[in-house]
Amino acid sequence: MATTLDDLLRGCRRSAVHLELRDGYMRDDPAFIAWQGGHRLDLADRAAWWRPWLDTVSAMVERGVEVRRARVVSEPLSDYIRYEYDVTFPNVAAGEQVRWLPRRQATELALPGNDFWLFDGDDLVVNHFSGEGEWLGTETVTDPAVIELCASAFEAVWERATPHQDYRPA
Fold first, then answer.
1. Which domains does the chain have, with CATH numbers?
2. Taking the model in full, what pTM does it have?
């Protein structure tokens, strides 16, 4: 059985969904700091895009896996989420579907307390972050009730969210 996130990504057969709920992550990330300083990704320079993530997504999509990411965000967007918005076009080019849901439109949704990945509807990996957005690690959850809660939460967000190409940040 796959044990790491990379193993789960590579072993995924049908679907990989990722729900993001935070307004900031790893603010000391050199790419984020460069973006704050004015650096922008070049649409034409695919080699400079986020590797190896995009290669992994492309390979997944090529073998028929549906890769979806939904982000629940506060508006107006934090600087970090504005950065994520600006650098999402490579994800979409690799075949990942990305949608955005303003937090004010999620009030009546039952959402989990943490970001997560769900692979093939079976393997749930919960991401843990500090209050400052530093990644602390993952937790694999096997409880079927929690897996169902996260799957239904993702689908509820996905249904309401706006596709990346149509979302206009406030």
1. 5-166 (3.30.870.10)
2. 0.92
